[in-house]
Specification:
The complex is a heterodimer of chains A (417) and B (204). Chain A is mainly α and 417 residues long. Chain A is built from 18 helices and 8 strands. By secondary structure, chain B is α+β, with helices and mostly antiparallel strands. Chain B contains 4 helices and 11 strands. Classes of the chains: A mainly alpha (417), B alpha+beta (204).
Chain lengths: 417, 204
Amino acid sequence: MSEMRNYTLNFGPQHPAAHGVLRLILELDGEVVERADPHIGLLHRGTEKLAESKPYSQSIGYMDRLDYVSMMCNEHAYVMAIEKMLGLKVPERAEYIRVMFDEITRIMNHLMWLGTHALDVGAMSVFLYAFRERETLIDCYEAVSGSRMHATYFRPGGVYRDLPEKMPQYLDSKLRSAKKLEEINENRQGSLLDFIEDFANKFPKNIKQYSDLLTDNRIWKQRLVNIGIVSADRAKQLGFTGPMLRGSGVEWDIRKNEPYSVYEKMEFDIPIGVTGDCYDRYLVRMEELRQSTRIISQCVKWLKANPGPVMSDDHKVAPPKRGNMKDDMESMIHHFKLFTEGYCLPEGEVYSAIEHPKGEFGIYLVSDGANKPYRIKIRAPGFSHLASMDEMSKGHMLSDVVTIIGTQDIVFGEVDR
Amino acid sequence: MKQLKKQLVKAFGKNSISESFKELTLVINSEDVIDVCKQLRDDFNFSILIDLCGIDYLTYGESDWNGNASSSGFSRARQAQQSSVHKEQRFGVIYHLLSVEDNQRLRVKALLSLDNLMIQSVTNIWNSADWFEREAFDLFGILFENHTDLRRILTDYGFVGHPLRKDFPMIGEVEMRYDEELGRVVYEPVSIEPNINVPRVIRK
């Protein structure tokens, strides 16, 4: 008999199912995975080091680029850390806008996850549908911040500007008929809030569409049920958070347990799984889509009824109005100081965590009293999730590795930082 | 949180617990890390290690304005910062713990000196510490005793140095390019100059 040897497979870093730049060294016995060793760091940009050399407000843009599919949630954790240290009060309207965009971001993230996860497992069409709806939400980002992805919209003290009164519309083009133009501009007649409301009304139907395609699909279930089971105890040991922890049946959601912003005023439910396999995590995230839509509807209702300021009027932190700067000496000084030097935070350290779509996203900020952070540690949920790759894929087939990468919802911007 | 603070004071003594910004910090002796962490997990229900990170206190509390400003700019901001103050305990390892059961958080801090940059690994208490400790080793050079697989994690294969230390320049030390004659990638000392646009100031 010939001697059998384990087979080592290099998966990625340019594999389409590796979700970016993951390099996995898989040790296989036949087609069964014996050991998985993820090599990360191929997208390491040194965000923490860079942030140490810049005034606080200049690092907000870096936060967008961490988890580049849920941009505003990253910003939220960062500005919350600064506000916590400064003891800065944020206007209520800004808090509602933040929560609304956090949830829009959550939907964007979950749509991305759903599309690519289904694509990895072999269902092409869900990807197309998911990205169709994601496009609508990216338009909301663009309408409010001018940028489709890297918004830099949340600022210490509030948000950059109020929601626009008018939603941008498609222009006449040779490529489409007048009738088509009218059709695609139909939900863009009012303000951004009307546009989001229209989305929130339509979206539950779309979620049903996705789940019709997947939830009872035989192939989908064969690929997901009982794959990558993590018990509640193991999930805690491995430092899971977010849907990964809830999929294993642990009731933990920072929005409920340590409510920040105005989450305590929102009505929503927390879905949890039972067995802790990939299918449960799929169901949890699908339910989160519905719950996020609920939160968005509540925010839209409140925002429509309550106009007001969206930025703190503490001009040590928030820039003064451009008009005031023209003839008000103090405003001009504030503006000059703010953009040449920034603001100093009191000495100390804080940890601010939010319920990011992927789990707990935390910013540990150490300040020595300067205008730049002394140290920033970004606690990315994907980092601990990916660390469990070895345990989750052990004993599974090679094709299940792809499912497990999908269910972990990995984005390398935040894993590598 | 008040109750937790009381219990912690009872278990670890008054001097090691501090509260700021509504967060609790427990400063421990680096040799006791295993005992303390076991106690925290088993008696205080801190079942999740949320985060573990290193910190370098080399230039803590120093600003660029103290240096000599000349017509060509701030020399201190242009040179790699070399602190004159010798910090006895320059490094720290910081653990962020979460208790899902009691909805509590705690920060645990252990300080280390450069001569003895070694601390016991907590991977056997919380398995999630594995990669976090690898990261702290990679970025700060802190050694974790009894860690089974202490390799670099974020930096490149064959990287030299620990980039998040304060004496490591932000522009790095080497740059990489493809050499056509040699037909391979070569590493050379960096050719760019360090530049700081906004000096670091401390205002009380």
